[in-house]
Amino acid sequence: MTRTYSKSMLVAAMLLLISLPAVAQENPVAAQSLEEYLLGYDYDARREMKANSAFLLEHLMDDEAVLLDIRFSEEQQVWNFNFALHIPLNELPHRLDELPKDKLIITACPHKDRAILAMAYLRTKGYKTRYLEDGLLSLADSLRGDDARMLLQFLP
Questions:
Q1: How many domains is the chain built from?
Q2: pLDDT-based confidence at 18, cuts 50/70/90?
Q3: Which among 54, 107, 128, 153 could disulfide-bond with 118, CB atoms 3.0 to 4.6 Å apart, if both were Cys?
């Protein structure tokens, strides 16, 4: 897939999200339409929408966040993060009830394109969410040896 094709798909998906109505859920974070989110977008919002691997691991160990792996099921079967919640992006709208409403949801895919889409969608549904800016590939690279052992001590 070419980079131009990927960017075109991302733009098309974002335009589709703009047309989705914001549905308030039983969640302390108010649901916003994508249009409202974009109109209020500034440098603080740009920083706040991202989480790197260190941020993710810290919040996982404090039980304040959930890693949402939104890769296709085939990708998840080939290589798996057993501490993540696995909901493919194309199943997300039908599986929102599986997401905790009291924790930060950090969406992730190998790089970040699908994670950004999932983050934007979940924000329109009232979830507090960020995307993993360095992607699952970088997360996997950082979870070696002592770092992996340390994370296991904190996971249920």
A1: 1
A2: very low
A3: 107
